[in-house]
Design brief:
The protein has 183 residues and is mainly beta. The protein contains three helices and eight strands; from the N terminus they run E-E-E-E-E-E-H-H-E-H-E.
Length: 183
């Protein structure tokens, strides 16, 4: 029986089928730019093998995808954002809507109905995102605007402690069937 995958195990770079489990539209917390946020879970494979150990990954949540739809006060960047999200002019780099085979004609770019993504199955290339573990910030660090504390280091080796998180490298297109039923 496979062990449940955990963040101490490097997630191998490979293809997977993902399901959109949540779709939201709103301003970015950091820039205020409007964006679509898609949350995913792994549908297939059900397990992965890392260094001879089998890990269960079905249902594993993936780092969300953030897709900026416009850049405030920058028409040129907004045009680029719209090509990446709604309708691409380059068939080699399809837009988010094109990847999901959703017609973007008539979509309100200022308030798109993102529920059309929910439940869709998509082929994706996943990779590991490596994050250093940090302490909680001290009062002094918080005053300076820091959100995290110092990096936690292994006291024996002096190396930073790290965690691995599966992240989408690339979305290819809808998986066979495209939808996995109502969520």
């Amino acid at each position: 029986m496979a062990e449940k995958w955990n963040s101490a195990v490097m997630f191998p770079q490979d293809n997977a089928i993902l399901r959109v489990i949540e779709a939201n539209f709103g301003p970015s917390k950091s820039s205020g730019n409007p964006m679509i946020t898609l949350s995913f879970e792994v549908v297939a494979p059900e397990s992965i093998n890392v260094a001879g150990v089998e890990y269960s990954v079905a249902g594993l949540k993936i780092t969300p995808g953030y897709y900026t739809t416009a850049t405030l006060d920058d028409a040129e960047k907004t045009a680029t954002n719209e090509q990446r999200v709604f309708k691409s002019s380059n068939p080699e780099r399809p837009s988010l809507y094109e990847i999901f085979e959703i017609d973007s004609t008539g979509v309100d770019k200022n308030n798109p109905d993102v529920t059309v993504f929910k439940g869709k199955l998509v082929h994706a290339l996943l990779k590991s995102e490596v994050k250093e573990k940090t302490k909680s910030p001290t009062a002094e660090q918080l005053k300076k605007g820091q959100k995290t504390g110092d990096v936690i280091k292994n006291p024996k080796t002096g190396k930073p402690e790290i965690s691995f998180y599966p992240k989408i490298e690339k979305l290819y297109g809808l998986a066979d069937g495209g939808v996995s039923g109502a969520l």
